[in-house]
């Protein structure tokens, strides 16, 4: 089959008004029927109606799956377990990690706060040697002018609250159904050669992520309380989470398939509803459901879908709650150190072409093949040290135009792009520059197009940029033992090219699926 | 186990604020995740937001399943196939049916309009000998003062657009999950003896109703068009249907499990998008999807989720559309005659204790057991003929207090209750009285209580009345041959006692499930 650019000359097929109307109304119904939903934003429905907690609308989704090169998809999957282990090993290497984090501590309160949590627990002694990672490695297709073949470049590696596994597999199901029904007469889409017999590849994100949490639950062992208590997994979430159905897809699987009790808890409720008994040196974390105060549970695994951004720590009480969890016997997904391993600075250090080789430190000695394979997924990244290459590229408008400037934050929305970089840097104190990372922009296919249904029912179409995430889970011990290391499931997010940022919940981009070519 | 009254002395268990909050928020999430949803009413969300067609909210549901006597549930299921055949046979007996309908024609424009459709098709000759019925027989538990045992009394028998099969089975799943999870520590509800190991009985409504439609599709045979066309089932629906997810549960099953193409069509689109080729004496009904105008389908089965109320016929064009469907080769679910067999007058004639025995006419000769079994489910019903028992009971406020006055309409909302009956009758011309039926009120358990979550998120609790519907499907030929006759699936609706009417979509009542005792 042809390359990406020629595919997009005819893809997606143009829709008549009746075809667009059919697809939009079918998707509006399908998403509600199948929980491919979000709580509506208050920009669309009144705050009063939203506050009742009953309304839902479709997650933003593309009408068509997006073409994606099979070799790149296979490669992204093939390196995931290596990436899982790399970030587990970085999290275990407190000295190396600490040295890099030290560079950020005086300029980044958030990083500093996290490190303080680690320090405090270290003083008391960690009581849990196991850590769980539910990771997502995000990529874009890079079409460099010199090369015929598109290559795979990592945008970022997420070590906390990797989202959209739950909804993503439903988008695959949606597009598969549209491509397959009615049986023998596929008329939902206009015909296109790319559709001939193709459906999106299997997407086992829910199964994989849930199995990771179940593995941690199992590895925790029996209750450390006396008398012993029933065990559970705890999802720690943000208040008023609009993306709740993504999370519920995992908790439902854990409850119904793995038969493990799961509870949800807002960050603000942690200190009220959980306790750590200091008289018990194992420090089990006890959760007392307010609706069943006589049936306390012992928490084996804390899964964070919160606490990943500075805004999740509104007061010292929130930092106290994070410390409270961290010092307990529960397995954390992630631990503070594992969260810190995902900050952009680490990715920059690994990918900086002008810096000493750090990557090999974490790979089996002599395995240059694996190192090379990972390196091929790196886009060049730089720090902004004085007299360094990064500073030079960032301050020159001509070279800045090919770069993006990223803070340490997860979740998007904070990046500075292209020619805005020099001006932005001059607007902040030079002492803060070291908290930023400069990354060469990946050049995705220019002509990619798609059509999306927004959560407010509007249908928009135009040029897009796609980002593929691969999910992986790993459970490791501080002594280096790996108890579980799996790859499985993926996420395709597609954003309108006019917007420079990701983050589906923020309304900039849509959930998508892929057709391999 | 004890009788209904003593059960309700302790049922449902009282909820603390935290317990109610847990159940309400769990159900708010579960319903969206599992499509137990309706489109929101404009009383709750602005017309503008509703018009985008993307929002959904939970269907009104009870927090607890309702206790129901096992013997009555078994009996309701046991008579369903006999009821299926009874109404099929009534629909085939044009003379008998016509005689009764004649009594209504000059006082009821709607009944008269339906009969005219039948007359017009009869003149041209029917081209389809098969008819499909998707029925629901509705019952209440009757607790007469003299008897210890509760008995089962039929409220009505529905022959068109029998709804809530799709959502009802999900309510069973919801209550089962609340009763079963977390595994080994059932803490969703406060403990109650009725819960010990019990979950709602299996509810195969979706499977049963879909299998009925699939049976008709299969019995239609091959395409009658030349050249032959692909075959499909057509759902004819109301514009702006809020209860769409109930319908989609059936069409999804038909499409994904039975592999049969299904399309939805508003009544207003019938004449634009379907055609009957008169040059073909078989008169196949052709549907041309607007999104695939080059791929017309031949309709094997027309499933009406519209055309059941006078408000569905806004102009002569709607009557023309109904005639257009009726004269075609498609199997109708229901045919006009089958729809007419469901009018209240028929049920009154069968159940009138002061009238000649009509029931035996439709049952196997000498099978007095079956007749007796059906009769036990009848509440006494009367017409209002001059000097008749019905008129006497209706005009006397003392006896009227034990009765309900019903028009021929489906769907509730038009009944006159108790002491309001004499005054109402005097307010309309006596010549119109014959379009009304007087029915003895069923006396459900006085103390029944439940708690419900409304679609706007409000939680209400109080005394309730429950109504159990049993679903059945039958496919028959005009020559009396029965090709398919099945019973399966049920609906529990629970309404606040303060309201006298049913109709969940109207907001008066909630979907419920049952625990057998």
UniProtKB/TrEMBL annotation, chains A, B:
Catalytic activity, reaction form: gamma-L-glutamyl-L-cysteine + glycine + ATP = glutathione + ADP + phosphate + H(+)
Gene3D superfamilies linked: 3.30.1490.50, 3.30.1490.80, ATP-grasp fold, B domain (3.30.470.20), Glutathione synthase, substrate-binding domain superfamily, eukaryotic (3.40.50.1760), Glutathione Synthetase, Chain A, domain 3 (1.10.1080.10)
Top-rank lineage group of the source organism: Eukaryota
Binding site residues for Mg(2+): 156, 158, 410
MF terms in GO: ATP binding; glutathione binding; glutathione synthase activity; magnesium ion binding
Cofactor: Mg(2+)
Protein known as: Glutathione synthetase
């Amino acid at each position: 089959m042809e390359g990406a650019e020629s595919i997009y000359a005819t893809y997606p097929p143009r829709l008549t008004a009746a075809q667009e109307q059919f697809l939009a109304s079918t998707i509006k119904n399908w998403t509600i029927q199948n929980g491919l939903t979000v709580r509506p934003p208050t920009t669309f429905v009144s705050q009063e109606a939203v506050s009742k907690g009953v309304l839902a609308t479709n997650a933003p989704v593309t009408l068509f799956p997006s073409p994606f090169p099979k070799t790149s998809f296979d490669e992204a999957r093939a390196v995931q377990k290596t990436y899982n282990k790399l970030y587990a090993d970085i999290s275990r290497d407190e000295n190396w990690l600490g040295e890099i984090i030290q560079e950020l501590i005086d300029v980044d309160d958030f990083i500093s706060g996290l490190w303080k949590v680690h320090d405090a627990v270290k003083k008391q002694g960690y009581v849990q040697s196991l850590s769980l990672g539910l990771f997502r490695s995000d990529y874009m297709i890079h079409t460099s002018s010199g090369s015929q073949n598109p290559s795979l470049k990592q945008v970022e590696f997420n070590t906390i609250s990797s989202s959209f596994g739950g909804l993503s597999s439903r988008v695959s199901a949606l597009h598969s159904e549209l491509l397959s029904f009615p049986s023998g007469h596929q008329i939902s889409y206009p015909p296109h050669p790319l559709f001939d017999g193709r459906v999106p590849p299997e997407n086992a994100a829910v199964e994989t992520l849930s199995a990771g949490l179940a593995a941690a639950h199992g590895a925790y062992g029996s209750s450390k309380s006396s008398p012993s208590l029933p065990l559970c997994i705890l999802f720690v979430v943000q208040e008023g989470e609009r993306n709740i159905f993504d999370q519920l897809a995992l908790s439902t699987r854990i409850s119904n398939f793995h038969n493990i009790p799961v509870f949800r808890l807002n960050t603000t409720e942690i200190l009220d509803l959980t306790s750590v008994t200091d008289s018990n040196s194992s420090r089990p974390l006890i959760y007392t459901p307010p609706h069943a105060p006589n049936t306390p549970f012992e928490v084996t695994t804390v899964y964070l879908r919160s606490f990943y951004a500075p805004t999740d720590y509104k007061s010292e009480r929130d930092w106290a709650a994070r410390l409270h969890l961290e010092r307990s016997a529960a397995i954390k997904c992630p631990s503070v150190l594992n969260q810190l391993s995902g900050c952009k600075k680490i990715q920059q250090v690994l990918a900086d072409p002008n810096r000493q080789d750090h990557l090999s430190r974490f790979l089996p000695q002599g395995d240059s093949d694996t190192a090379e394979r990972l390196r091929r997924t790196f886009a060049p990244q730089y720090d902004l040290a004085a007299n360094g290459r990064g500073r030079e590229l960032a301050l020159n408008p001509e070279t800045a135009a090919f770069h993006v400037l990223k803070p340490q934050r997860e979740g998007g929305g904070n990046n500075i792009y292209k020619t805005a970089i020099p001006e932005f840097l001059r607007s902040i104190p030079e002492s803060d520059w070291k908290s930023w990372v400069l990354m060469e922009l990946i050049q995705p296919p220019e002509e990619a197009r798609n059509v999306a249904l927004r959560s407010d029912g509007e249908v928009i179409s135009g040029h897009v940029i796609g980002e593929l995430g691969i999910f992986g889970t790993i459970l490791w011990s501080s002594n280096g033992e790996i108890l579980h290391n799996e790859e499985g499931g993926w996420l395709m997010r597609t954003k309108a090219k006019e917007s420079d940022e990701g983050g589906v919940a923020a309304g900039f981009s849509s959930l998508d699926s892929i057709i391999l070519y």
